[in-house]
Amino acid sequence: NSIYLQGLGDVRPALPTDLTRLEGLAERSLSAQAFGYVAGSAGTGATARANREAFDRWRIVPRMLRDVAERDLSVEVLGTAMPSPVLLAPVGVQSILHPDGELAVARAAAAEGVPMVLSTASSYSIEDVAEANGEGPRWYQLYWPKDRELAVSFLERAKAAGYTALVVTLDTFTLAWRPRDLDQAYLPFLRGIGVANYFSDPVFQKAIGGPVTDANRDMALLHWVANFGNPSLTWDDLIFLRDHWDGPIALKGIQHPDDARQAVDAGMDGVIVSNHGGRQVDGAVASLDALATIVDAVRDQATVLFDSGIRTGADVAKALALGAKAVMVARPYAYGLALGGQAGVQHVLRCLQAELELTMVLAGITRPSELSLETLVRA
Ligand code: FNR
User: Which residues form the FMN hydroxy acid dehydrogenase domain (predicted)?
Assistant: First the structure.
């Protein structure tokens, strides 16, 4: 309601409440390279479009006279209590978007009590982001590097800095065919920005023979590229992760029910149904279309989260109705960060949560757990 009250006076929200408008505004304020990095997707963008279209094929059926005066959007996911079933997805090198990058996002997340998932490819260190996040809830996302010692170092640093759950991204052991980044020479662009989280790591520094300086920066970047992902990993390697992480682990990038079952068999606590926002396999199945069969396959043996294509509160409600316990969003808050720093990220979170709450109560629903397939029809 505070958003409506602001609108009644002279004070208008600094950013539009229709979050789909943020992309156009960000395009005007960011460089072509920075905008291309966020908005871009794999190949022709077919999967990114399919992610959005999948939401249009489901419609919510509102129910009346159900006493919705008291509502509670809070959920607990992988041991973390959160005010609503929404998390901030991992997004790498955020200083491309705003000088404060992940620090601004960490402060916004803490102010709203919303968990952030810090990317391995962050532009601030694990420790600096933890400090900015303070008492806020935070998870760590691992891009599993070739060098196992480096992987262990990341996990130990994250644990020591208070990240409670681990998200292991499986769909990006190499960057996909992303025409916008290729055309705009993304890696040379990144050279000027660096990947501080790697550069600050003692194991990384040992591998390149000392701290990163102007003199060895190119070599450091090449070492990063060579080590970024490990294409030879198999399901058996997950034992190694279990041995080095005490808290809950969720696998991100799952699109097939058999992979979800294997995750359960490997003792994983959660799976994140995601196609990386359409940034990896062009022509891949829409993430929302993969969700229901995965929920069926996993039943209650693991927590199912969802991302790729969430833009509105109604989208969140649909993903929950199809069985996700919570959702993650990426591009909307990345644009919020670009346009308004910490306040921009908070604006996005507040809009999304407010619209989710309104959608739910107007549909006769007071708790996320009440959302089910009975709430939806096929369009
Ligand atoms: C991402 N994503 C991502 N995922 C991850 O596991 N580690 C990362 O470092 C990044 N980096 C990243 C950068 C940018 C600019 C984007 C847009 C995305 C993927 C992200 O976590 C998420 O899976 C999707 O982006 C979700 O789709 P939407 O919300 O962007 O449609």
Answer: 11-379
